[in-house]
Amino acid sequence: LQHIRVVTAKGLHWATRQHFFTGIMSYLASPLWMAQLLVGLILVLQARYIRPEYFTDQFTLFPTWPRFDAERSLSLFQLTLAILLAPKIFGLIVGLVQGETRRAAGGPILLVLSTIFEIFLSALLAPIMMLVQSGAVSAILMGRDTGWNPQRRDDGSIPLRDIIRRHRSHVMLGLFCLMGGLMISPSLVAWMSPTIAGLILAVALSWASGQLSIGLWLKRIGLLKTPEEADVPEIATRANQLSQEIAALGYDDVDGLEAVHAFPALKAAHEMFLPPAKKRQRGEVTAERALAEAKLTDANTLEEAKNWLKPKERIVVLHDRALISLLSRLPADARTHNAKG
Q: What is the model's pTM?
């Protein structure tokens, strides 16, 4: 959503602007879809429980019948399906035509089955993403920081209790829609069945999609294979090799504050990549920075600073040259501190 500020900037190619706009709409589409669902539910409730006003204040010889344009509604539904499925179908056609891609994906049958499976899974995940993204957009519009956690690059497994805590509201909403829909109109439940099913199955879907064992099983039977799995690019092979070397040396477990403190060359390189420091306006103080500076000032050793600083304060320190300088002045441990004393 931050691309809204740069999409109209001068000098950008139209394709770049379109790319920005597509990314923006990938998030804004969720609250728009939610609004459409809410309007549809309100119309259904109105049609069932509110008696139409057949005769208005204006004189007329005939009653005013409620109008529902089924043809236009069906056209909207067909257009929506076309927009959602066209890229997938075009990709499938390209994959079937290109012999190398077709063979790398396991052959035409497995490629078609993988596409169908992906469409089915995407349909179930879509309502969950709708709620998650709508919440993020709402928080941003209200001025709240929603955070930006790094993507999980390992097997993705998450404790089941965390999954339940994250998706319990989605499941409850799905059950509420199911029971409310059955009370109002069974046809409404049939119409909204993909959305309701996705919400009710939110915990199961989130758990299953993060299981390495399920991913390996799909790989063994040949579903959702990509050409890169059959013919691994050289850059990916080299990246995996370097990752294993770094992990073997123990660098994955190194504390960021400790690394910047211990290696002057790393500290200099890190500061070089930081954006230019902005002049702080009087009275403009963030809580995280104030706390981080106070803790670094009170700390007698690096170990104390590491124990006191919370995750957000650590990030503030690593993004501020002045705070990095305070960190660098601290002795590494109590023995060094006492020797200097």
A: 0.66
